[in-house]
Amino acid sequence: MHFPIHDLDSAPAGARPTLAEIRQSYGFIPNLAGAFAESPGALNALWGALRAFEAAEMTLSPLERQVVLLAVSARNRCEYCAAAHGMLADMNGLERREVQNLQEGRRLSDARLEALRQFAETLVDRRGWLSPGDLEKFIGAGFTRAQVFEVILGVALKTLTNYANHVAKPAVNEQFAAFLPKWAAAA
Fold first, then answer.
1. What pLDDT sits at residue 2?
2. Which CA distances in Å does 104 have to 57, 63, 70, 100?
3. Can you give the pTM of this predicted structure?
């Protein structure tokens, strides 16, 4: 089944204002948002979650947020999101080699970011059923209880987009195609 990638002209009327906000924010409409526009309600929910994850009240740094989003996307084997968040992690100061490590599920050289990667992956792998040791290890790496919930929000956000990408299969936008993970070429 084919899912259309909507733009401002083809999208249902209820999705157009949100698509316009997305284009204004990013300078283009990511193909994922164009696919989500098929359902204005789903697109609005996605946009709200994205804005919440980037809100000033979040205590994870912009780079830490990208580590969460990229770790989850790689774990879920979502090439679209792994490319997009690879680019954003790079833009937020993560070395390209470390972006590739994240995309491959390999250790990061920074101990704090590695603890964050492991925690996000554990949440995905165990469907949120953490052991007391998992929480203690995360908190022991310098994170807070509030940040536990911020990571959970990131996992939920990426689960939503990863699954939507698996179903709709939008093409990776040229803006982040250079960050496609190595495993995407083999898929």
1. 87
2. 30, 18, 10, 6
3. 0.94
